[in-house]
Amino acid sequence: MESLSPNLDASATIFIIDDSYYNLDFLSIILTEFGYNVIAEINSETAFNKIKLFHPDLIILDIIMPKIDGFELCKMLNSEPNTKDIPIIFMTAISDIDQKVKGLNLGAVDYITKPFQKEEILARIQVHLRIRQLNLELEKQKQQLEQRVEARTAELSQTLENLKQTQLQLVQSEKISLLGQLVAGVAHEVNNPIGFIATNLYHAQNYVDDLVNLVHLYQQQFSEPGEAIDNQIESMDLEHVLKDLPKLVYSMKLGTDSVREIMQSLRTFSRRDGNTKKAVDIHEGLETTLMILQHRFKPQPHRPAIQVIKKYGKLPLIECYSGQLNQVFMNLLANAIDALEDSLMGRDKESKNLQIHICTSLEQERIIIQIADNGMGIPESKQSQIFNPFFTTKPEGKGTGLGLSICQQIITEQHGGSLECVSSPGKGTEFLISLPL
Ligand SMILES: Nc1ncnc2c1ncn2[C@@H]1O[C@H](COP(=O)(O)OP(=O)(O)OP(=O)(O)O)[C@@H](O)[C@H]1O
Ligand SMILES: [Mg+2]
User: Fold this and answer.
1) End-to-end CA distance of the chain, in Å?
2) What CATH code is carried by the domain that includes residue 326?
3) Per-residue model confidence (pLDDT) at position 6
4) 425 Cβ below 6 A of ligand 1
5) Among 116, 148, 183, residue at a domain's last position
6) pLDDT for 329
7) Mutational pocket test of ligand 1: of 335, 340, 370, the residue with most ligand atoms within 8 Å of the beta carbon
8) Which of 24, 228, 288, 423 shows its CA 20 to 30 Å from the CA of 85?
């Protein structure tokens, strides 16, 4: 007895089941003396319910008992989630090898032999209580570890989400800046030669007018210029040339004017915003975007023209990144055009008016811009996904699925506004931008 260290876990509760009062008393006394809490039970049927209720740290179980024997009770305890982890020690006769093996196979952790050896019993109980305690600690640590892994996974997914967002922003600013640079460069390069042509056309028009007058004067003064000149006049159809030449020069002038206008729009569209917002006119942005897209509104072999119906309200200037807002208009209008074209698929191309409505208004300190089409609409199942990056229903190479996610980011994050979509499948779609003043 002196060789055993005192009970480390004084609060441990040990449940003893035996149909002999003698054994129960004997074990109870030595275990209580040693500092354990002891519950003793003579009836194995009652024992099962009491164990579930008290949930002891260790069970010492006799094998041969009336009604429910030790093996049976062991099985019952093992099949109960609440009790299956409580270590069970069997009591068996010293010589009964079969019983020992069967008990261990049923899940018991150990056995003690009758007649009892006090010190052996205490030593075994201590070992198993210690193992039980270590197991409990292990389980606790496992749970903590799982919680930490869960928290870490959540952190990592958040980081991944942030990374995706950053990547998207990078793609977006790269897209805008590359497009802007390209457009500004082209507009700049075209501007010089076009200016040159326009100036020279102005002089050319004066010269042509003078020359035409001069020819008329010659014709009046010299009504019979001779055969060679008469032949030339006839072969070149002088009358027609004199009438057509001024018109021709005039239409060339119109042409250069319209090229200059387009170039001006491109430069406005690609105006570099820098890091500061500027007060801009929303309608100017819409008009330049429409100008750039004008070739897509014209009739095409596979479809009639797209009508753009504008209803502009009176708006104040608004502080914003105009280049980015133009990018939003561009994306929404391009999507509307795509939807209108798709809505003609498998239909008679003249059977439908293709329309885009653009409305602007001022409502309670907010600027509202509505861009609506009467295209194919968006199926309800897809409406919640259209703002997700890379979501597209367009064939590969045609759509990247970034347009709307970029629009939403520009409107909500850069401008504190909101972008909403209302769509009736088969009828059309409306995007509503709301920007705070
Ligand atoms: N006006 C609209 N009518 C019908 N469907 C639309 C409309 N606008 C967007 N969608 C749907 O939302 C999807 C996502 O649009 P988004 O602009 O983000 O990408 P995309 O147009 O497919 O490609 P990208 O704009 O990058 O070239 C589209 O593929 C389309 O299915
Ligand atoms: Mg798009």
Assistant:
1) 88
2) 3.30.565.10
3) 45
4) no
5) 116
6) 93
7) 335
8) 24
Position in ligand 1 atom list of the atom nearest CA 335: 8
Structurally, the chain folds into a number of domains equal to 2
Q: At 152, give phi and psi (nearest 5°).
A: -65, -40
Give domain status of residue 277, yes or no: no
State the distance from the centre of ligand 1 to the C-alpha of 404, rounded, in angstroms.
Answer: 7
Residue ending a domain, choose from 76, 93, 116: 116
The per-residue pLDDT for 314 is 94
Q: What is the pLDDT of residue 275?
A: 62
Domain range holding 31? Answer: 13-116
Write down the pLDDT at residue 414.
Answer: 87
pTM tops 0.70, yes or no: no
Mean pLDDT by 10 residues, the chain (437 residues): 47 93 94 94 93 95 91 93 93 84 90 90 93 92 95 92 81 72 79 86 92 93 91 93 90 86 73 71 91 88 93 94 87 95 82 93 94 96 90 84 86 93 95 95
Q: Is residue 430 part of a domain?
A: yes
CATH of the domain at 53: 3.40.50.2300
Assigned token pair, 10: 């004084």
Pocket lining: 419 vs ligand 1, CB cutoff 6 Å: no
Tokens coding 89: 């020690």
Q: Tell me, what's the pLDDT at 294?
A: 86
Q: Answer yes or no: is 358 within a domain.
A: yes
